[in-house]
Amino acid sequence: MRKTRVLIVEDSAVVTALLEYSIGRDARLEVCATALNAEDALERLDQLAPDVIAMDIRLPGMDGLDATRWIMSNRPVPIVVVAASVHSGNWDRTIMEALRAGALTVLEKPSGTSNADYATMAERLCTQLFIMSQVKLVRRHRIQETHVGNGRHPPSPRAVRGSYRMLGIASSTGGPSALVQMLGDLGPAFPLPILLVQHMTDTFLAGFAAWLNGVCPCPVTVVKDRCVPVAGTVHMAPAGRHLRVEAGLLRLDAGLPISFQRPSGTVLFRSMAQDLGAAALGALLTGIGDDGAEGLLQVRRAGGYTIAEDASTAVVYGMPAAAVGLGAVCESLPLRAIAPRVLKLVSG
Questions:
Q1: Which residues have a Cβ under 8 Å from the Cβ of 221 and sit 6 or more positions away?
Q2: Same domain, 323 and 199
Q3: CATH code of the domain in which 193 resides
Q4: Of 41, 159, 267, 296, which shows the fewest CB atoms inside 10 Å?
Q5: Alpha carbon distance 292, 282 (integer Å)
């Protein structure tokens, strides 16, 4: 079996050696080359033809953000940002802007091999590099037609304008860019509370929330247990906690992961179906796996309205495809069409 070719772009010789060691121990992967700076990597990109790039953010000369922008504009290759777990405002923003520019996910650099967490971090890194290498980065200029539920599935609930009380959103790989688009299109005066589950490495989730708060027209807050949802505010699940709606309050718990995820979109959507019934509005965006699909089905069965991102715009058509397969989706829409449809649904 052909191994997945990984290009490492990292200016630290010590970190490069550790990444080479970690990747070299995985039978699925091989390091095709290393580069100490972005300029060298870009110059050799066609020659090396990597399947995936492990990209540092802090690089001499051109940084990882500008390198990501160039690659995604000129020669798209799946990019995994590999960064140290250090929190600084500027660094966090640069990482998140790289995700917005097209990088697929962000992971922590493995610590030294003597560290107790090394094996777990190295396994997570290698698995994500392998999975992300399979993502086909194809530009689609033609917007596909809207798809709706068909006769094999339960009939779509009748959309009743002005009857919805909360909007739930779940996203994963490709989500940061999609969320900026969707939340920007919803605007600063959206009349409902927005509940958000975004899959991301726990270390970077708080930084993501702060960044999203700075680039979106509506406030973004990380949920605290038993808080009251506020209209026009994005309430995001914190790292390692499921987000649920219960008696009108937002609740957190550390229950078992669902579809390998905690927080889980399915947990959020299930609770919305139970607590809000036909007043629940759910949107499932780009992402690997099937999280959110079963929960979205519960929303639809409860009479709520469900939307999934269409394959024509989803970076990874995994979670939305799983929901469509279950018959959980009232409408599949291209990303730019989701916010206008939501605004029409919630207008009285």
A1: 209, 213, 233, 234, 235, 236
A2: yes
A3: 3.40.50.180
A4: 159
A5: 10
Q: Catalytic residues, which ones? A: 172, 199, 291
Residue 288 contacts residue 172 (beta carbons within 8 Å): yes
Does 142 map to a domain?
no
Per-residue pLDDT tens listing for the chain (348 residues): 799 999 999 999 999 999 999 999 999 999 999 999 999 999 999 999 999 999 999 999 999 999 999 999 999 999 999 987 655 455 568 889 999 999 999 998 877 777 777 888 889 899 999 999 988 874 433 334 344 444 445 555 666 666 999 999 999 999 999 999 999 999 999 999 999 999 998 888 888 999 999 999 999 999 999 999 999 999 999 999 999 999 999 999 999 999 999 999 999 999 999 999 999 999 999 999 999 999 999 999 999 999 999 999 999 999 999 999 999 999 999 999 999 999 999 996
* Residue at 186 is within a domain: yes
Q: Do 104 and 166 belong together in one domain?
A: no
Residue range of the domain that includes 193: 147-346
Any residues with CB less than 8 A from the CB of 115 and at least 6 apart, and which? none
- Whether the model pTM is above 0.85: yes
- Cα–Cα distance measured from residue 112 to residue 15, given in angstroms and rounded to the nearest whole number: 9
Both tokens assigned to 205: 């989730």
**164, 287: one domain:** yes
